[in-house]
Design brief:
Helix content: 40-55%
CATH class of the largest domain: Alpha Beta
CATH superfamily of the largest domain: Aminoglycoside phosphotransferase (APH), C-terminal lobe
Structural class: alpha+beta
Strand order of the largest sheet: 1-2-3-5-4
CATH topology of the largest domain: Aminoglycoside 3'-phosphotransferase, Chain: A, domain 2
Oligomer: single chain
Radius of gyration: 20 Å
Low-confidence stretches: none
Largest sheet: 5 strands, antiparallel
Bound molecules: adenosine-5'-diphosphate
Number of strands: 11
Distance between the termini: 48 Å
Shape: globular
Strand content: 15-25%
Number of domains: 2
Number of helices: 9
């Protein structure tokens, strides 16, 4: 890390920095652990043009989740730019690998977050999923919202990037007709929005934290779909979560449809290796 930035952070913290270590695990930004004689901080740095906005919307998401008092998020210390980088500085959460009890607590607390509701699906602002724009234009109908603000923009982007052909992509009317029978009685729930295993932490004393959110009000099963996309969380997570929400005969199909969004995002961010998974869901439902 550049020396000027280190000096800048040190004056911002009003503490001397004793150690800076690069961390791995994030997909989008460079991440560091910053140590001072008494504290630990987590820093993300990103030089992309839209990075400052990405970090601002991340902070908004972390704070909205925090305000619900259902599940913790790390405290944000600063979100700013320095020279040619945007940066986000927050509390470092000393973490451990989760025990079944930690998973149980995560499941209960996520379910509590999902009881926070709104009059509409979406959010009062757009945000990002990874580094891609995520449109949250409010809508009172989940079917409309999911078709026009989630699937369509990612399908369009994949076509533009020549990752999907026009004939495999359903049109908006086809999407709505196919999903109408399985999207019934859905109420807005505050979502993390990108809940894979790299986006929660369990502190050393067993407290769950959510990080790196892409929040909006949507169907609560969307977060569960993301937890299941790459292997799934521990069973005690689902046992705890399912004590709060009933599933029905279409849950399985909705989970696949919600995974489609994340797979399209992966296709658009990381390329062709996600084509097969995307194509098989498209062929199955549309
Ligand atoms: P990116 O936006 O680049 O995907 P993340 O916010 O997911 O970055 O952070 C990358 C990794 O850094 C996470 O998977 C996690 O292991 C670790 N991490 C993130 N926030 C903190 C924090 N506040 N304290 C400790 N470790 C963190």
């Amino acid at each position: 890390m550049n020396k000027d930035l280190k000096t800048h952070l040190s004056s911002l913290l009003n503490e001397s920095i004793t150690k800076i270590s690069a961390l791995h695990g994030g997909d989008i930004s460079n991440a560091y652990r910053i140590e001072t004689p008494n504290n630990g901080y987590f820093l993300k740095l990103n030089k992309a043009l839209n990075a400052a906005r990405m970090f601002q919307t991340e902070v908004y998401g972390l704070q909205l989740i925090r305000k619900t008092n259902t599940i913790k998020t790390p405290g944000v210390i600063a979100c700013d730019t320095f020279q040619d980088s945007a940066f986000l500085l927050m509390e470092f959460i000393e973490n451990k690998s989760p025990s079944p009890t930690d998973f149980k607590n995560l499941g209960h607390q996520l379910a509590q977050l999902h009881t926070c509701t709104s009059e509409y699906f979406g959010l009062d602002r757009d945000n990002f999923i990874g580094s891609l724009q995520q449109s949250n234009k409010p809508n009172t109908t989940w079917l409309e919202f999911y078709a026009t603000e989630r699937l369509l923009p990612q399908l369009e982007l994949a076509k533009q990037k020549q990752l999907l052909s026009t004939d495999i992509c359903p049109r908006v009317q086809e999407i709505k007709e196919a999903l109408k029978p399985i999207f019934k009685d859905i109420k807005p729930a505050l979502l993390h929005g990108d809940l894979w295993s790299g986006n929660y932490l369990i502190s050393k004393d067993g407290v769950p934290y959510l990080i790196d959110p892409a929040i909006y009000y949507g169907h609560h099963e969307t977060d569960i779909a993301m937890t299941k996309l790459f292997g799934g969380f521990n069973d005690s997570f689902y046992d705890a979560y399912n004590a709060h929400f009933t599933r029905d005969k279409n849950t399985f199909h909705r989970i696949e449809i919600y995974q489609l969004y994340y797979l399209l995002v992966h296709l658009n961010l990381f390329g062709r290796s996600y084509y097969g998974s995307v194509a098989s869901i498209l062929k199955k439902y549309f």
